[in-house]
Amino acid sequence: MVSAEPLPPWRPLLRGAREREGRSPQARWLQLASVAVDGTPRLRTLVFRGWAAASELDLLTDGRSAKVAELGHQPAVELGWLLPRARCQFRLRGRLLILPAEQEASERQRHWQGLTPEGRALWGWPAPGEPLEDGACFPAELGEELPIPTCFRLLRIGLEQVELLELTNHPHHRRRWCREDGWLEQRLNP
Ligand SMILES: Cc1cc2nc3c(=O)[nH]c(=O)nc-3n(C[C@H](O)[C@H](O)[C@H](O)COP(=O)(O)O)c2cc1C
Description:
Blueprint: H1 10-19, E1 29-35, E2 41-47, E3 51-53, E4 56-62, H2 66-73, E5 76-83, E6 88-96, H3 101-114, H4 117-121, E7 152-166, E8 173-178, E9 184-188
Antiparallel strand pairs: 1-2, 1-5, 3-4, 4-7, 5-6, 6-7, 7-8, 8-9
C-alpha cells in the first residue's frame, strides 16, 4: 500500500536486522503486550504480517482470543522484536487502529488470500483458550474457496514510538524515535 508518510529512519534499521536472520522464521516473530481488563499485563508471540503504511503494521489473530477483548478495552500495545543475529531489540509502542469498514473488509480478504491452506486452518479450530473437548475437530487445512471465518481478525497497529537497543558495541547503543517529533532520533543511555 502506498503511504503519504516518508519512511521513518528506524525502518531500514529494522529491515537490516531482520535480513541478518536469513531465512529463519524468527525474523517474523514478535511479542505483543497488552493490558487485561483487570489491569495486569499479558504477553504472547505473533507473526508479523507486513507493513500497511510507513508506521503501521499488520497482525492476524482469532477474534475469539483474549487479546482481542483486551485490545477492545485498552488499545495501547507494546511490541517486542528480538533479532538475535543482529544482537538487537526493538520495542514498538502504538495502538490498535480502527479501520473504515470497507478498508477493513478488503484488507482482511487480502490477508486471507495470502495465507496457505495450513495457515488458514487455525481459524477453523475451536475457540482458543477454551477447555479442550473430546472429539473436537482441528482441521489441518482450510481452502481459499470457503467463506472467510468471522473469527479471522486483522489487527492493524499504528506505531507512535520505537526504541532500539543494540548490543554489538561497547558501550551498547540505545536510540528512540517518536512519531510526534517527526521520528527524530534521540540517543539514550543503554
Ligand atoms: C511462533 C508463534 C507464532 C504465533 N503466531 C500467532 C499469530 O500470528 N497470531 C495469533 O493470534 N497467535 C499466534 N501465536 C499464538 C499466540 O502466541 C497465543 O498463544 C494465542 O494468540 C492466544 O493468545 P491470547 O490468549 O493472549 O489472545 C503464535 C505462537 C507462536 C509460538
